[in-house]
Design a protein that fits this description.
Length: 86
């Protein structure tokens, strides 16, 4: 995607956009940061990981339900108050 003379977004050649990204200083910085991140992730063993995360699943508990119901109560109360006031 590119921008036309009037600022509208237009379909452009992906190769040209990639070349612009590679030639642009900001693009070079972004690609360099991506390379550093990839190297760091590889060094920490992300490449050989069998699961996406090591964090365990958190079960849904009663406090979660109470917070959700409280938030819904606030939302419904605000909606009803708005209807009654107008």
């Amino acid at each position: 995607m590119g921008r036309g003379r009037d600022g509208a977004v237009t379909a452009a050649d992906p190769g040209r956009d990639l070349a612009g990204l590679l030639a642009d200083r900001a693009g070079t910085v972004v690609l360099a940061q991506a390379a550093v991140l990839a190297l760091a992730m590889d060094a920490r063993g992300f490449a050989g990981a069998h699961r996406r995360t090591w964090a365990g699943a958190t079960p849904w508990r009663l406090p979660d339900t109470l917070v959700l119901l409280g938030a819904l109560l606030v939302l419904v109360t605000a909606a009803v108050a708005r209807v009654l006031v107008t």
